[in-house]
Design a protein that fits this description.
- The chain has three helices and 32 strands.
- By secondary structure, the protein is mainly beta.
- It has two domains: 275 residues, TolB, C-terminal domain (Neuraminidase, 6 Propeller), CATH 2.120.10.30; 120 residues, TolB, N-terminal domain (Rossmann fold), CATH 3.40.50.10070.
- A hairpin with a 6-residue loop joins strand 18 and strand 19.
- Helix 1 crosses helix 3.
Length: 436
């Protein structure tokens, strides 16, 4: 089997082979169902600031142990919290907090709650207290079924994170990625912690470049099931999928506009890969600009008025920015001779990309205003960066022990998580939007 590889599929070593070959035609089939294995999470490093917090076990129901552990795990993965031991503590949601006692334990904050069950429905009452200011920061009640308990725990962790740091939490968001096994390829979505994976698509041949719609209801991606790359949009709730770009040549690198009304795509219909925009239903195709060399990997800026993209028009792959109104492109990256796969932060202030330094492929972050650059990872084989929706972390693929895994790195490079599957290689990751 011949596998086409490119910058769009996170394989910068063969970027020039973007359109070198096609996969043999086969078939793909929808399988919206739980995946066979969770992703294992390993964490290293801590943040520059750590908030001391006690998470007391939620009382009243065996589900309290699961809820408490999920909250603790979420906050630990961020690298921004120091967990204070609560093994000898029993609290109810109505308990009166001894602020001085908790401060003496080293806890500036304490979260606690109770869980009750009625007719198969759970009620989760939670409180967050600042022991220094002696103020209640949050108090809310959730209801849900047993299947919803993990999601509710992630929501509580999000609230704790935001009340303390001032930044919206991303623990209840989702990620999408491609799992490659001996049987083929799977497009999966999972919770941000790698749990609850679901298979959106199975195929005998490659699936690349998944992209979340802004509302999180759809995924665009490239499938090779027809013997060439074709762009599909799939509705996650129903599994319905439609081809929106199946033009002559290759159709690749979909990226949603911020309003979800159109996508930027790359087509080789005129002989060389060029960037177009197209309606989300597959109409109103428009070429963005003309270039004598390869333009690829477009991403919308948060205001929807420009694209950042990869091009070798200057002699080697670099990242450029083009106005959708004027079609005029300007070079953005100047550090190093090989920079591809751009992703721009939700506030538009930072750019991440894959850079090649001393033979290693690493993830770099560049400030859009100053042009200053920081290398977030050491390589040697890091690809496909994607910002968390709060802009605080970067999801990307990495090679460890000869296997492709997913990694999450904080934007200061201090905290790293690795999410790995036991039954295959995980790659092509993209972080989904906030869930309303």
């Amino acid at each position: 089997m011949t596998t086409l590889t490119s910058a769009q599929s996170g394989r910068p070593r063969r970027w020039r082979a973007l359109f070198a070959g096609l996969l043999a035609s086969t078939f793909a089939w929808l399988m919206v169902q739980p995946a066979q294995a969770q992703l294992r999470v390993d964490i290293s490093g801590v943040g520059a600031t750590q908030y001391p917090i006690a998470i007391a076990e939620f009382s009243g129901d065996p589900q309290g142990q699961l809820t408490t552990q999920v909250i603790r795990d979420d906050l630990t993965r961020s690298g921004q919290f120091q967990l204070i031991n609560t093994a000898d503590v029993a609290l109810q949601v109505e308990s009166v907090i001894d602020h001085e006692s908790w401060r003496n334990r080293g806890a500036d904050y304490i979260a606690f709650g109770s869980i009750s069950q009625t007719a198969g429905q759970y009620r989760i009452d939670y409180r967050l207290v600042d022991t220094v200011s002696q103020a209640e920061l949050d108090a809310v009640a959730f209801t849900g079924s047993e299947d919803e308990m993990r999601r509710i725990a992630h929501q509580i962790a999000d609230r704790i994170y935001e009340r303390i740091t001032g930044v919206r939490g991303v623990f209840s968001t989702r990620i999408a990625y491609v799992l490659q096994t001996s049987n083929g390829y799977e497009l999966q979505i999972a919770d941000a912690d790698g749990q609850n994976p679901q298979v959106m698509l199975r195929s005998k041949h490659s699936i690349i470049s998944p992209a979340w719609s802004p509302d999180g209801s759809k995924l665009a991606y490239v499938s090779f099931e027809l013997g060439k790359p074709v762009i599909y949009v799939q509705t996650l709730a129903t599994g319905q999928r439609v081809p929106i770009a199946n033009f002559k040549g290759n159709n690749s690198a979909p990226a949603w506009s911020p309003d979800g009304q159109q996508l930027a795509i790359v087509l080789s219909r005129d002989g060389i890969s060029q960037i177009y925009t197209i309606d989300a239903q597959g109409g109103n195709l428009r070429r963005v600009m003309r270039s004598p060399l390869i333009d690829t990997e477009p991403q919308f800026t948060p205001d929807g008025r420009s694209l950042v993209f990869t091009s070798d028009r200057g002699g080697n792959p670099q990242i450029y920015r083009v106005s959708l109104d004027s079609g005029e492109a300007q070079r953005v990256t100047f550090h190093g001779s090989y920079n591809i796969s751009p992703a721009i932060s939700p506030d538009g202030n930072n750019l991440v990309y894959v850079t090649r330094r001393d033979g290693a492929f690493r993830i770099a972050l560049q400030n859009m205003a100053s042009g200053s650059e920081a290398l977030l990872t050491a390589g040697p084989d890091d690809h496909s960066p994607s910002f968390a929706p709060n802009g605080m972390q970067v999801l990307h693929s990495a090679v460890q022990g000869g296997r492709s895994v997913l990694a999450v790195t904080s934007v200061d490079g201090r905290v790293r998580q690795t999410l790995s599957a036991l039954n295959g290689n995980v790659k092509e990751p993209v972080w989904g939007p906030f869930r309303n």
